[in-house]
Amino acid sequence: MLFFTQCFGAVLDLIHLRFQHYKAKRVFSAAGQLVCVVNPTHSLKYAPTRCAAAAQESTEQGVLPPCHHHEAVHDPQLVPCTCPLFSCPWEGHLEVVVSHLRQTHRINILQGAEIVFLATDMHLPAPTDWIIMHSCLGHQFLLVLRKQEKHEGHPQFFATMMLIGTPSQANNFTYRLELNRNQRRLKWEATPRSVLERVDSVISDGDCLVLNTSLAQLFSDNGSLAIGIAITTSKVHSSEAEM
């Protein structure tokens, strides 16, 4: 019975994943698009983080933890952890941020010029985040969808794409977020912001796709929201390359 239960559960999980994939492909029928099913994560910014817990445990054992504040003179080339979920004290060079996000915070990465970001369980209370990294055009981007209350009792959804790079590098790209369902289409196109500018600042400025609850429900399907994502080089950057 135990063997049967485990196998049956695995089959159900596979069927559910294929069904979610089919729903996203039904909304975005363009061939060749990759579909990534993203489960929600509650933000632990104001709770003890895994790094903090590991630091406390390592200190008790007399071992120097991998995540710690630098007590020496601060290196201006070091950047703080860019994960919007945790108040992680990690610092490192920009080129190793991707490795830190994948290894420490278990953020998945998907490759492809155009992908479909399928966020599940949209009904969960705020604050909730859906996060994935997107590798495209030789760079890595961080896509964040956040459910947050700017006014008490009125949750909103904020979606933005941030380049894991400098602001000047971010200006070379344009990203497009598209919602498409029931003969309705909504697009947001903008220049990505650098992760050095922080996700919280982008949301506070409103420089992102913003959906109220009723609009999000209009484009969702059984609690899942499919967002088509496309990244291109900016026209200015392309013209300079041709010259």
TrEMBL record:
Molecular function GO labels: ubiquitin conjugating enzyme binding; ubiquitin protein ligase activity; zinc ion binding
Domain Seven-in-absentia protein TRAF-like, chain residue ranges per copy: 135-229
Keyword Zinc-finger in annotation: yes
Transmembrane segments: none
GO cellular-component term (any): cytoplasm
Reaction(s) catalysed by this chain's protein: S-ubiquitinyl-[E2 ubiquitin-conjugating enzyme]-L-cysteine + [acceptor protein]-L-lysine = [E2 ubiquitin-conjugating enzyme]-L-cysteine + N(6)-ubiquitinyl-[acceptor protein]-L-lysine
Any one Gene Ontology BP term: proteasome-mediated ubiquitin-dependent protein catabolic process
Record-listed E.C. numbers: 2.3.2.27
Keywords from the named record: Metal-binding, Ubl conjugation pathway, Zinc, Zinc-finger
Gene3D superfamilies (UniProt xref): Apoptosis, Tumor Necrosis Factor Receptor Associated Protein 2, Chain A, Classic Zinc Finger
Superkingdom field: Eukaryota
Main EC class the enzyme belongs to: transferase
Pfam families: Sina_TRAF (PF03145), Sina_ZnF (PF21361)
The protein's annotated pathway: Protein modification; protein ubiquitination
Free-text function comment from the UniProt entry: E3 ubiquitin-protein ligase that mediates ubiquitination and subsequent proteasomal degradation of target proteins. E3 ubiquitin ligases accept ubiquitin from an E2 ubiquitin-conjugating enzyme in the form of a thioester and then directly transfers the ubiquitin to targeted substrates.
Family the UniProt entry places it in: Belongs to the SINA (Seven in absentia) family.
Domain notes from UniProt: The SBD domain (substrate-binding domain) mediates the interaction with substrate proteins. It is related to the TRAF family.
Protein name: E3 ubiquitin-protein ligase
